[in-house]
Structures are given as structure tokens and as C-alpha cells.
Amino acid sequence: MFIDYLLSAVLMLITFAIGSSLRFSDFENIFKKSKPLYLGLFLQMVFLPICAFIIAEFSNLPPAEKVGLIIVSICPGGTTSNFISYLIKADTALAVALTAINSLLILFTIPVLSNWAAAVFMGGHTEVSLPIFNMVWEVAKIIIIPALLGLLFNRFFPNVSLKIRFPLKVTNTILLGIVFFIKFFGDEQSGGSGISVDEIIRLLPATLLMHLSAMTLSYFIALKSFKLPGVQATTISIEVGLQNTALAILVAGTLMGNTDMTKPALVYAIFSFFTTFIFALITIRIRR
Questions:
Q1: Domain boundaries, the chain
Q2: SS3 label, residue 191
Q3: Selection from 107, 78, 108 nearest residue 14 by Cα
Q4: Any idea which of 94-98, 194-198, 200-204 has the lowest mean pLDDT?
Q5: To which H or E segment does residue 278 belong?
Q6: pTM of the model
Q7: What stretches pass through the bilayer (predicted)?
Q8: Which helix (H) or strand (E) is 3 found in, with range?
Q9: SS3 for 12?
Q10: Cα–Cα distance measured from residue 85 to residue 166, given in angstroms and rounded to the nearest whole number
Q11: Pick among 3.30.390.50, 3.10.20.600, 1.20.1530.20, 3.30.70.260: CATH of 1-286
Q12: b/e 113-134 (16+ beta carbons within 10 angstroms → b)
């Protein structure tokens, strides 16, 4: 649909803006001091799905929606989570590096864990195979290529890059807000989700609990247990808190063929950007 193409275009512009605020040396530092990177990947790929499983196990949700909750947890955040780090001046290079790596890891983890969730909660087994070439192209198109172009732009035109940084932040924020409003509150004919108020109310407690508990615990694990700087702890909590709901909808609705499984992702998408942004803004100001 048109709204999906518009969202992709906005995300590419956002990633370009993020890249134009970084230097190649920023990524060199991330990979040289790799503890934050490994911890972030563990919290995203292992800790969050464990939280989702515990909540799903003890919730009163129908089996298909329990599987949908697990699917949300195994689809780590993409460009929008990087955008929050960019807006609040967190460790944007760490955010982009996490996104680039987990976007490749999920090619293996999503089929395994989504099939496992269906077996546990629905007593059956649905073979899920991701369109690997298409997903690699989406990662390259929306994340890698625009970020690389932004990095090159900042390298060769640093003065111009500095001048357009603030206007790009404002423009991208407005565009993303408009697209999200249409996507989440519009009807299905306009490209919206079409989810009902009753479904939102039923799913809100479990999705909100998974979101807030995983994001908050990740922040304190990074800050207290691993002694990371506050900026990096906030960055990791952003990546754990904001999931790629568009991918979750693709996996649940298209690859697994179950519309009920998409509902947790739709509800999660309604609030998670705003709650993550507020949490990140508070923690970044406390610890900076």
C-alpha cells in the first residue's frame, strides 16, 4: 500500500540523517570496546524473548495472541529506535551497529523461535521460512545504504551536514508522526491497522508489561551490573524497548497466516515509540 512505501521513504531519510551525524571513527570505537555491543545483542535477542515468554505463559490471552507476543519480542527494533538515540544524542553509533547485526541474526532466530512458540502455545507446528533475499535487501535499502551515504556526506561536506542537522531532525519527526498516525489509527483501506478499541484494551496490559519491564530492566542491568556509562545504558534500553512491529506483522500475518497473531504487534506499535522516547529522555538527562 501507499502508506507502506511512504513509511519506507521516511525511514530511509531518517537513516541518512543519522548517518550524516556520525563519523567512521564512531563505529571503530564501538567494535574496539565491544562489551556494550555484546550486552545489547544479548538483551535484545535472549533476555527480551524470555520476558515475553514468562508474560505470555501467565497471561489470559488466547493462544494465537500469546504467540503474537513472542513474535513481537523476537523482532528487534530498526530505524525508529536508532532515530530516538539520534534525537536525544545517545550513543547513535552503538544503536546503528546493534540494528545492523541483529537484522542479520533474525534471519535465523525468527524461524526457530516463531515455530517454537506456535508449538508451545498452539500445540502445533507451522513451518516459517523468511524470504532471506528480500529481508537482506530491506536491511540494505533502509539501514545500510542510507547510513553509509550519510557517513560519506558528513565526511566530504561536514559544514553542510552540520547546517542541515537540526532541520532534518524537525522534518523527520513531523513526517514520522504523520505516517504513524495514518498507519495506526487509519482504516485498512488507507493502509491503517484497523484494530478495534476492545482488542487494544484486552492486549494493552500484556504488551505494556513486556515493554516496560524489559526496557527498564535492561537499563539497570547495563548501568548497575555491567557498569556501562549512562548514555550507553539508555541506548541499549531504547533498542530493547522499541521493537520492529512491521516485521512482526509480516511474520505473523503473512508468513504464519494468522491475523490474530498480528494484534499484539499492532497494539505494541501504538504506544511503544512514545513510551520509549520518554523513558530515554528521562534517563539520558539523569545520567549525563
A1: 1-286
A2: coil
A3: 78
A4: 194-198
A5: helix 263-287
A6: 0.80
A7: 6-25, 37-55, 67-88, 100-123, 135-154, 166-185, 200-221, 233-253, 265-284
A8: helix 2-20
A9: helix
A10: 14
A11: 1.20.1530.20
A12: bbbbbbeebbeeebebebeeee
